[in-house]
Q: What sequence folds into this?
């Protein structure tokens, strides 16, 4: 029996990369959804001020907002942006997107279940 410790960082982090993606987006979604004061449990009032006299108020479902912001913009958009921003040095990975989106949905479930 042989036990060894590796110093190859890519080997260590490669095994946990998907777990890190999942947990990061789960926490991100919980934090994102908890910053809003909700008028009801599921509705968020968003007000856009055009100028001092004009403003538009929209009521948005908190879970729909989290899907757009956390799943689509952050979860999927970050994978596209990392390839663009690093001139192709970072690799686009569909498995990362899947873990990002699943983590975001788990965060939404936590907020819904625990009424955070």
A:
């Amino acid at each position: 029996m042989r036990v060894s410790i590796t110093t190859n960082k890519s080997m260590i982090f490669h095994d946990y990369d998907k777990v890190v993606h999942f947990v990061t987006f789960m926490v991100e979604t919980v934090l994102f959804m908890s910053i809003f004061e909700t008028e009801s449990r599921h509705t968020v009032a968003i007000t856009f001020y055009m100028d001092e006299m004009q403003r538009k108020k929209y009521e948005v479902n908190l879970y729909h907002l989290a899907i757009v912001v956390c799943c689509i913009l952050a979860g999927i958009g970050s994978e596209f942006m990392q390839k663009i921003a690093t001139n192709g040095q970072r690799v686009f990975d569909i498995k990362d997107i899947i873990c990002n989106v699943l983590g975001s949905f788990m965060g939404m479930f936590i907020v819904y279940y625990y009424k955070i």
